[in-house]
């Protein structure tokens, strides 16, 4: 293009109404040009045309892209502006294809556009996005309904030229009913292809009957005619598959997996898998990722109409209840594997017909959370709106550790605001306490210490009111961290000691061990290293007995810090080595690098310049691969030693 600034990415907008094949075209084309973009592809479904207000926010989309780049949680900045800037900087020198599917409007898209010329953006939308075409010189590629010749070509490509040539009248009738919509033609072609012995005349006859039975669905656009195709395809389903298709209209999330679908209908998972495969073959749903199924928006709207027309309100509510039970109980089970030391909450037993997932360990649970958490967030919102208040706050509780450890702090705030409202409406003080704690934690991670303190003090009071000693200890632990970050070290020690006392009184051994280490660290911040050694050695003994590797590494690290500050450098080196080994064994890359950095400082203080150089070089390699903010400090240290390679 003539007036395009040479620094901007190239943009193509594929626009047109629902069911024209915009996404199919974009994905097909992305596969063909894959080799031109050696740095890979980013894909996001912006859900601009789903039910009601389910469109993806810019914050969600940017966060998803940062996850795709595997940016570690602690490196993700607090504000959306800074996150967007980080995303753009990651794209700066890369050649990538970015597919933004189902965009609602230009506002939703603009922050996601890279500034670099090596990238290509392909957008699909039902709107023309004219302002992008004007301001960003985007290339418009409008799609329209197929004319009769194009429709015939599509059928020939799917069904074969012989069958199309053999029954010209039937073909013309099918084309008329499909109204030039590729989605409708694909559904008919799928049925013809799976029943090679059916004459096309028989299919056309079925479609003719279906059109007559559509009085219930009046509407004034091309999709009304196409409903004949949907309804015909729906009526060819067996009763079980038909019921599943209708009730999928109750599911709020972007995608659904077999266990959730099984729970929705109240059937065993293997049966649900078979029904989902049937619906996929009929082109009524799509398998978007292995084991994850989704609707086209027109078909979702159709399923919602069907369930409202044919399923009694109490049946829809029971289905919703079973689905929420599935998500809640599976999330609680995943949480147990993800953070075993966490104090559990009391959850109502599941309704009959609900499947609950099982998890063998941390890795399996983490993977499930990563794949399912958009659906969990949608389910939580639906629970709050539909009056399932306990499900809402308990789902939020089950997501807390995952969202915190992965750095989804904005989502943490979103879900716990909803949860707090739900717990408030049913006067559930336990739920309110947990949500205030999680909101405080999110603000703490984002460096908003005043707001964090407000939430945490409120959580502390609610935990007191409900007599939850472990909750109070958690709140004091977080207040200790907030005080330390703000340099209020006396206050930090006060909170650390309160947490220790509460864990001891509750007989909570692992909490007590972590709290001992925090007390030791608080003394170190105040310069009382003898007290650090006393408390952290006790913590270390308890953590080793419990086989808690994560806590043990933290205690070794604190002891190293104390020994180096009292001038016992050999002791410090030995402690830091233990911390480094444990952290490497657990794949804790950030904390391993931080311990390596401190190990190098202790080696330098002991006069071992070569050892210090080796440790700092290893720390630098890790910090650089993580994009860690401490990288420049290590680099400066190496330069001072005269040994910075690269």
Automatic annotation (TrEMBL):
Family matches, as PROSITE patterns: TPR
Which keywords fit this entry according to its UniProt record? TPR repeat
Q: Where are the transmembrane segments?
A: none
Q: Which SMART domains match?
A: TPR
Specify whether Cell membrane is a keyword of the entry: no
InterPro entries attached to this UniProt entry: NB-ARC, P-loop_NTPase, TPR-like_helical_dom_sf, TPR_rpt
Descriptive protein name: Tetratricopeptide repeat protein
């Amino acid at each position: 293009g003539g007036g395009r600034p040479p620094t901007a990415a190239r943009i193509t907008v594929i626009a047109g109404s629902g069911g024209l094949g915009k996404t199919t075209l974009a994905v097909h084309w992305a596969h063909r040009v894959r080799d031109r973009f050696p740095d890979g592809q980013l894909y996001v479904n912006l859900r601009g045309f789903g039910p009601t207000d389910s469109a993806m926010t810019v914050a969600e989309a940017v966060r998803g892209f940062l996850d795709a780049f595997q940016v570690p949680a602690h490196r993700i900045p607090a504000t959306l502006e800074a996150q967007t800037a980080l995303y753009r900087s990651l794209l700066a020198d890369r050649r990538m294809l970015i597919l933004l599917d189902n965009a609602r409007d230009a506002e939703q898209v603009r922050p996601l556009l890279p500034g670099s010329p090596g990238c290509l953006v392909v957008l699909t939308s039902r709107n023309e996005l004219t302002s992008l075409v004007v301001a960003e010189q985007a290339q418009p590629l409008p799609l329209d309904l197929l004319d009769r010749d194009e429709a015939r070509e599509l059928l020939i490509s799917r069904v074969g030229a012989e069958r199309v040539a053999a029954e010209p009248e039937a073909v013309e009738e099918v084309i008329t009913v499909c109204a030039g919509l590729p989605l409708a033609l694909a559904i008919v072609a799928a049925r013809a292809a799976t029943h090679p012995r059916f004459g096309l005349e028989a299919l056309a006859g079925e479609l003719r009957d279906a059109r007559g039975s559509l009085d219930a669905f009046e509407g004034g656009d091309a999709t009304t005619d196409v409903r004949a195709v949907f309804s015909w395809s729906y009526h060819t389903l067996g009763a079980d598959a038909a019921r599943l298709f209708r009730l999928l209209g109750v599911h709020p999330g972007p995608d659904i997996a077999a266990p959730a679908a099984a729970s929705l209908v109240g059937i065993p998972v293997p049966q649900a898998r078979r029904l989902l495969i049937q619906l996929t073959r009929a082109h009524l749903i799509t398998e978007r990722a292995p084991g994850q199924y989704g609707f086209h928006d027109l078909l979702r709207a159709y399923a919602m109409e069907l369930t409202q027309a044919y399923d009694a309100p109490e049946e829809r509510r029971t289905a919703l209840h079973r689905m929420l039970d599935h998500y809640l109980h599976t999330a609680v089970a995943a949480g147990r594997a993800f953070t075993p030391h966490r104090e559990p909450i009391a959850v109502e037993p599941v309704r009959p017909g609900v499947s609950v997932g099982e998890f063998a360990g941390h890795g399996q649970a983490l993977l499930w959370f990563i794949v399912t958490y958009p659906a969990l967030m949608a389910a939580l919102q639906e629970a709050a709106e539909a009056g399932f208040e306990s499900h809402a706050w308990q789902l939020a509780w089950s997501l807390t550790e995952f969202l915190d450890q992965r750095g989804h702090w904005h989502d943490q705030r979103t879900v716990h605001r909803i949860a707090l409202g739900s717990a408030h409406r049913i006067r559930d003080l336990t739920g309110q306490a947990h949500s205030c704690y999680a909101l405080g934690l999110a603000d703490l991670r984002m460096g908003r210490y005043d707001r964090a303190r407000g939430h945490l003090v409120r959580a502390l009071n609610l935990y007191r009111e409900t007599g939850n000693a472990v909750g109070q200890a958690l709140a004091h632990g977080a207040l200790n961290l907030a005080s330390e970050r703000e340099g209020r070290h006396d206050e930090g020690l006060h909170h650390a000691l309160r947490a220790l006392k509460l864990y001891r009184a509750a007989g909570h051994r692992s909490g007590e061990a972590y709290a001992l280490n925090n007390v030791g660290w608080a003394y170190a911040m105040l310069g009382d290293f003898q007290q650090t050694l006393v408390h952290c050695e006790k913590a270390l003994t308890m953590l080793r007995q419990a086989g808690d590797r994560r806590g043990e590494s933290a205690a070794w690290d604190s002891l190293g810090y104390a020994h180096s500050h009292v001038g016992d450098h050999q002791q410090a080196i030995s402690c830091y080595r233990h911390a480094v080994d444990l952290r490497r064994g657990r794949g804790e890359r950030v904390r391993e690098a931080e311990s390596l950095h401190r190990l190098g400082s202790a080696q330098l203080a002991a006069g071992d310049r070569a050892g210090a150089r080796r440790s700092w070089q290893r720390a630098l390699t890790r910090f650089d691969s993580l994009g860690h903010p401490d990288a420049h400090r290590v680099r400066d240290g190496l330069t001072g030693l005269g040994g910075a390679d690269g």
